[in-house]
Amino acid sequence: MRRGPDHPRRPGRRSRGAVMADRIDRELLAERTAAVLRHLNRVAAHLPPNPDDLQPLSSATDTVVLHLWQAVQVVIDLAVSTCVRLGLGSPPTYGAAFRTLAEADVIPDPLAERLGRAAGFRNLVVHGYGRLDLRRVHAIATAGPADLKAFLAALRDHAADGRGGGDAGGAGPSVTP
Predict the structure, then answer these.
(1) Could you say which of 19, 47, 115, 119 is the most buried, measured as most Cβ atoms within 10 Å of its Cβ?
(2) Looking at the whole model, is its pTM more than 0.90?
(3) 51-72: pLDDT as tens digits
(4) Helix, strand, or coil here: 169?
């Protein structure tokens, strides 16, 4: 049934004339990569060497948690938008976004699994900061940035090798701080 131009569309449906982008937007990726690296630099600058020095209600802890959460959130947003841009669908959960990208060979399976756990950390921060295990936060802040950077590099490489890219520009953003 054809509908007139003033008939509302059902939520979640594209009009027939809508065109889905089938590639990673390199300019957006470069911008988001820079944001993630800024957040990770703040984490590194405020993370004490000893996990026991990360204390509740301290400026260092607040800075580490806030910027780690923000870096993870940007990576989650990129994962979800990449699923949509590549025509893989809209994932029902943040963890599913990473699994979907692994199934499409955009990122390796082990990285998808670790990033799914990072999405769980994000949910814990957003919905229950008072219950954070600060020793675990320290471990995540120490090891997690490498996974976030690996994800950004995988998107860059996917865009550059012609499977998911093609926007104007060079080889894409560098993820090396």
Answers:
(1) 115
(2) no
(3) 999 999 899 999 999 999 999 9
(4) coil
Residue 112: CB atoms within 10 A of its CB come to: 23
Counting other chains too, the contacts that 169-175 makes at CB distance below 8 Å and 24 or more residues apart are 169/26, 169/27, 169/30, 172/26, 172/29, 172/30, 173/26, 173/29, 173/30, 173/33, 173/34, 174/33, 175/33, 175/37, 175/149
Euclidean distance between CA atoms 125 and 150, whole angstroms: 22
Start-to-end C-alpha separation, the chain:
54
Single-letter amino acid code for the residue at 64: V
In single-letter form, the type of residue at position 142 comes to: T
Q: How many residues does the chain have?
A: 177
For 53-154, strand residue ranges (E) read none
- Nearest Cα to Cα of residue 80 among 123, 24, 121, 124: 24
**pLDDT attached to residue 15:** 35
Answer whether 116's CB lies under 8 Å from 98's CB.
Answer: yes
Give the C-alpha separation, 102 to 107, whole Å: 5
